[in-house]
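tokens incoming
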């Protein structure tokens, strides 16, 4: 095996190379792509999502590596082999958490795959906040970070409201068209300071979604939690949200801002528990307070309008894990994953799908490992762990979901005690 040499993304490459980014959040990454193009980068978010991606992933990644790594690397390798790009003028970008999760090692697996496929000249950009790698041609400037934070905040709002509108829309496709229109409007605002008028924009968004005619039919609410890629990426969870809507349910998915706040909270935990990085902890505390203020202002706008449910503030999610899991359990999605399940139950969403990627050890501990404890505390909870790996069939997964939904309908129709008797009969 040839030596894995890192190819730096240089200042010159910023003007000559197209940077390919794997898809994770369909709404949020529209803002990501637009903002980076504004900053002078040639960016393309990948939308290829067929079976060839899994096949490419299996060719280049060992099949006992976590499933998200296989998909992300497979998506990029399929794109490079497609003939759509000039290999000498293309680069790849991937995030690195810097934690104990194997996501920090994706970049090395990707470089190995590039060498094996004969693409050793392709640079791989590490997007991280842990000083793991630097590239002279790619910088996360304060201006860029502010725009990205606003873009992801708006993405959370559109995703949250869309999931409450789409299952009930009378004219099919109205929600998708409205979301697309607002993405374009907000992207246009990124050219000026209008994107900073968050309260004004969110108020108008809530009013626009609230004005769409919708059915008053009651639908079963199903929460989606899990490893971050599997939770959000349609490629990872096999379009789980769409499946639930087709089954007559309302998917409930928390915003990605909660994960960012979780990461900031972990920086504070490092100092509180282990006396590490006092300066980083102070900076994290300031950033967390600022983001939570924005989050609360958005929740207040949604509550004041009264049409849609507002998301829970992050300080409640932190509190929800008390007596369930310690804050020191912070590998992967850590205590956040258990806290999200508790918050869903507290908000009346007893039916929960936990997306379990094969090979993600932290997720199996903080999710599947906590289910018995949650079930004991909340007997009405209806939680199913849905395992994803290259060999998992759609039919098997859909059958498990349909069984969960059948139990949910029993609980809804007959009540907890009678439903238990019917289930055990």
């Amino acid at each position: 095996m040839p030596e894995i040499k890192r190819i730096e993304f240089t200042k010159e490459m910023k003007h000559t190379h197209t940077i390919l980014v794997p898809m994770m959040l369909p709404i949020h990454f529209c803002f990501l792509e637009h903002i980076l193009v504004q900053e002078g980068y040639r960016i393309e978010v990948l939308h290829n999502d067929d079976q060839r991606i899994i096949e490419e992933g299996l060719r280049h990644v060992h099949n006992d590596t976590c499933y998200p790594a296989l998909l992300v690397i497979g998506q990029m390798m399929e794109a490079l082999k497609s003939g759509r790009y000039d290999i000498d003028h293309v680069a790849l970008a991937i995030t690195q958490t810097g934690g104990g999760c194997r996501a920090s090692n994706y970049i090395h697996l990707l470089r190995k795959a590039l060498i094996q496929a004969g693409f050793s000249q392709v640079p791989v950009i590490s997007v991280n906040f842990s000083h793991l790698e630097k590239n002279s041609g790619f910088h996360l400037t304060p201006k860029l970070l502010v725009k990205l934070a606003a873009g992801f905040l708006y993405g959370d709002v559109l995703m949250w409201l869309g999931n409450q509108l789409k299952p009930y829309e009378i004219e099919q496709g109205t929600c998708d068209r409205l979301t697309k229109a607002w993405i374009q409007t907000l992207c246009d605002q990124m050219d000026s300071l209008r994107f900073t008028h968050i309260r004004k924009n969110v108020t108008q968004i809530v009013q626009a979604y609230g004005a769409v005619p919708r059915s008053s039919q009651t639908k079963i609410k199903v929460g989606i939690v899990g490893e971050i890629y599997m939770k959000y990426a349609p490629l990872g969870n096999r379009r789980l949200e769409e499946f639930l809507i087709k089954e007559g349910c309302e998917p409930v998915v928390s915003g990605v801002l909660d994960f960012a706040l979780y990461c900031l909270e972990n920086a504070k935990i490092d100092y509180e528990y282990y006396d590490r990085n006092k300066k980083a902890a102070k900076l994290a505390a300031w950033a967390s307070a600022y983001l939570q203020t924005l989050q609360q202002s958005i929740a207040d706008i949604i509550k004041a309008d009264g049409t849609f449910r507002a998301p829970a503030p992050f300080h409640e999610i932190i509190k929800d894990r008390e007596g369930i899991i310690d804050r020191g359990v912070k590998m992967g999605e850590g205590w956040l994953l258990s806290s999200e399940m508790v918050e869903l139950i507290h908000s009346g969403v007893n039916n929960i799908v936990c997306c379990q990627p094969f090979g993600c050890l932290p997720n199996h501990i903080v999710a599947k490992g906590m289910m018995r404890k949650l079930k004991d505390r909340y007997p009405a909870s209806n939680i199913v762990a849905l395992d994803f790996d290259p060999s998992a069939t759609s039919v098997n997964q859909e059958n498990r979901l349909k069984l969960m939904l059948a139990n949910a309908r029993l609980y809804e129709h007959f009540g907890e005690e009678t439903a238990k008797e019917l289930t055990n009969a």
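note: The first helix runs from residue 13 to 16.
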